[in-house]
Design a protein that fits this description.
Blueprint lengths: L8 H14 L4 H8 L3 H9 L6 H10 L4 H5 L3
Helix pairs in contact: 1-3, 2-3
Length: about 70
């Protein structure tokens, strides 16, 4: 039986950070792309807040990522 993965804000945030760093972007640059400030990106990456669905899809599209790229624990 396959183990069920726990999807947490911290996992999603850590993976947003991982993707951003892998693409050589700063929080400022990702924020500018999304129309937000770097503090919003920091909140996403810390797991303090989650992006809304539209923003989440924009981040995924920006990094050519799929859902699994965000929910897999690091």
């Amino acid at each position: 039986m396959e183990k069920i993965r726990e999807i947490t804000a911290e996992n999603i945030g850590a993976n947003i950070r991982r993707l951003r760093v892998e693409h050589g972007e700063t929080q400022q640059q990702l924020g500018e792309f999304l129309g937000y400030g770097p503090s919003t990106i920091a909140n996403y990456e810390s797991g303090y807040r989650l992006p809304d669905l539209e923003t989440f899809f924009r981040i995924a599209f920006h990094y050519q990522a799929v859902l699994e790229d965000f929910v897999v624990p690091l």
